[in-house]
Write a structure and sequence with these properties.
This protein is of the alpha/beta class. The chain folds into two domains: 1-41; 59-214 and 243-384, 3-Layer(aba) Sandwich (Rossmann fold). Strand 8 and strand 9 (196-198) form a beta hairpin. The longest helix has 39 residues, at 3-41. The strands form four sheets. The chain has a five-stranded parallel β-sheet, with helices on both faces. A two-stranded antiparallel ribbon has the order 1-2. Helix 3 (129-136) crosses helix 13. The chain has 13 helices and eleven strands.
């Protein structure tokens, strides 16, 4: 074989590599140009990501108390594996219908404050425990000012804002969530004017508690396309696996019902990460301080305050009925609260009578109550209220 014949295969290989390289370079250049164009057109969010990843149209920023629900909203919202119809009134509170809420009412007005459990996320208003309470007491004007991820810092700021704006309030009922302690530790601050500042003040510990919340890998942070493909792949896996996932599987470390899940575990574990420099005890003290401020503000205006507590899945699985969540807020309520609504006994009683209680009262793969869980809480609240 001549030297020329021996060199021919190498030249062909070199030509092929050159062609592949050129095409790859052109593809990368076009891909980068495409990504830049899409980022310019949609600077705030990935246009290909729908719920649960896209920014919610109903959840908006508020300059005074951090965030809120958009007023006069009437549409569907996705949560977990399903959709629910959500309507808000003119104040941006979840309600049975879009309506104008006057500052003054001829009825006694009850203002509820709380986080996503009290908002009733994933459910229409009528199925939430606040909605059922309102239906049971038509002689009252019930307003639900709760929203997802609220905590005592926001309960205090929002109640002050509403009342100082002239909203008639005859009683305030605050439902303090298990997650409020971590939120106080790493999510909320107030400026010198008392306005709420929101942020991830401990970026090593993202709070995302739901199994459906998916963190993007580093290589997808700069590309809408890669982020979309990654999230779609993971979400399809969840949708296939989650409905048939066993409780034992979801209780394993790293899963939504795990014992070591830092967000709810503070009531039965002492050494926990993800509570920043405050730690659990500092976060509890901060929450109590915010509630002290709210109590003082309401007392000056002779507006009675009540507090309610309820368990997360972890409290029913690993904690006791006389949970630290109960003892802290029962003690705080002495000589302050008109009523202390302790719903732990009702849920622990249900647990003892229903072996499959986790499936029955929670949105599966999620920490929130489903319709039955809200009904259970509502019945207990209604029984305790008069």
């Amino acid at each position: 074989m001549t030297t020329a014949n021996k060199a021919a295969p190498w030249r062909r290989a070199k030509d092929i590599l050159y062609l592949v390289g050129v095409n790859l370079a052109v593809f990368v250049a076009l891909f980068v140009a495409f990504e830049l164009a899409v980022h310019i057109l949609y600077p705030d969010q990935n246009p290909w990501l729908g719920p649960p990843f896209a920014k919610s149209k109903v959840r908006i920023a508020n300059p005074v108390y951090g965030h809120a629900l958009a007023p006069n909203f009437d549409s569907e919202e996705v949560w977990g594996q399903g959709k629910s119809h959500i309507t808000t009134n003119s104040l941006g509170f979840k309600d049975v219908r879009v309506r104008e809420v006057p500052l003054q009412s001829a009825k006694k007005r009850i203002l509820f404050l709380g986080d996503s459990f009290t908002e009733g996320i994933g459910l229409p208003y009528e199925q939430t425990f606040v909605g059922q309470f309102a239906a049971a007491f038509p002689q009252l004007d019930v307003l639900n000012a709760a929203a997802s991820s609220y905590a005592p810092t926001i309960y205090n700021a929002k109640a002050r804002y509403l009342i100082e704006a002239g909203l008639q309030v005859d009683e305030v009922i605050v439902y303090i969530d298990i997650s409020d302690i971590q939120d106080e530790a790493i999510t909320y601050r107030t400026d010198k004017d008392g306005k709420v500042e929101e942020g991830d003040f401990d970026d090593k510990c993202p709070t995302a508690p739901q199994i459906i919340r998916i963190q993007s890998p580093w290589w997808a942070h700069f590309s809408y396309t890669l982020d979309f493909l990654h999230k779609r792949h993971i979400l399809m896996q969840y949708r296939q696996v989650l409905p048939d996932a066993s409780l034992a599987l979801l209780m394993q470390p790293g899963q939504v019902y795990a014992k070591d899940f830092h967000r709810p575990a503070w009531t039965y574990e002492s050494n926990l990460q993800c509570y920043s420099t405050l730690g659990v005890e500092g976060a509890i003290a901060k929450a109590i301080n915010q509630m002290d401020q709210l109590y003082a503000f309401l007392s000056e205006r002779r507006i009675p305050l009540s507090v309610g507590v309820y368990p997360w899945p972890q409290q029913l699985l690993y904690d006791k009925e006389e949970s630290r969540q109960v003892t802290i807020w029962r003690e705080w309520c002495k000589n302050k609260c008109r009523r202390f609504f302790n719903h732990f006994p009702a849920f622990f009683a249900y647990k003892r009578q229903h072996p499959d209680f986790m499936h029955e009262i929670f949105i599966w793969g999620d920490s929130h109550y489903n319709a039955l869980g809200n009904e259970l809480l509502a019945h207990d609240l209604i029984a305790q209220y008069p």
